Amino acid sequence: MDSHEQHSSAIQIANRIREILTKNGISKRQHANTVSRILNLSFSQAHRKLKGQSPWAIHQVNQITAEFGEDVGQLFGAPLADAAPVEGDPVDALLAIGDTRIACHAHIGEALSADQKSDLVAVRINHRWSIHAHDQAPEAPHYAVREVRIAPTVEEIRRLSIAILDDSPEAADELSKYLRAQGFNTYTYYDIDSFNEAVRDNMFDGFVVDWIIGRETSESCMTEIRQSENPDAPILVLTGQLNTSERESEIARAMRTFDILGPYEKPIRLSVIKAAFDRHFNR
């Protein structure tokens, strides 16, 4: 399959997945969050899949259809006739190894009679082919298996994307380096305008925002985040010493208005920031 066909397939699957979500009462705004939860992906990874920008693995489609009790065969068009395929023709199947199911391509032969035995047998239940050891196969007509081919898929690594805003490049870069070493993707910004532009144009899973940038507060940044495509993303707020009642009042108002985490007083302990994200994302 060339890159154009892969892209078209990803879009087709994404459209069908959206139909399933909507059918089951999931609002469009919650589609990415739902896929993120089911597949254990970051919000941005789920969003790319739902836009057809990232390929779908068979097991991911199976997970979503199983979550809502949908038949994956019916989902992607009318199933083929239930008759066995012509011997040697490859079909998509699942290879059963204990409790594990691995996507594969199988060359399936003729139906086996009661006096025939094969090390591996194929069965078709609910329009799905699966391959089993003979003595572990479910009760159903058994077919000979001529060949099984497995093309292992590379799993997407769940790296959450974190945007950092701090007008101290040294502090921002130090935090960025630390979080990257802990398995996050990080993006650093040193001024409010570039940060807000990035929030409008990109999708982030979480934010670390210094409350004072130059002579301004970062309140406009929090407004931008809460109006973004991921409005529920955690916002960790950093502060210098809260040495005035006015500053304390501003932070308190922001905590109520924007549901922020913190404030975390600078200089920050890097491990505390990581722990806050780990707790929020159940890592």
TrEMBL record:
Presence of the UniProt keyword Phosphoprotein in the record: yes
CDD domains from the UniProt entry: REC
Pfam families xrefs: BetR
Keyword annotations from UniProtKB, A to Z: Phosphoprotein
Organism: Burkholderia humptydooensis MSMB43
Residues of the Response regulatory domain: 161-281
Protein name from the UniProt record: Response regulator receiver protein
SUPFAM superfamilies to which the protein is assigned, alphabetical: CheY-like
4-aspartylphosphate: modified positions: D210
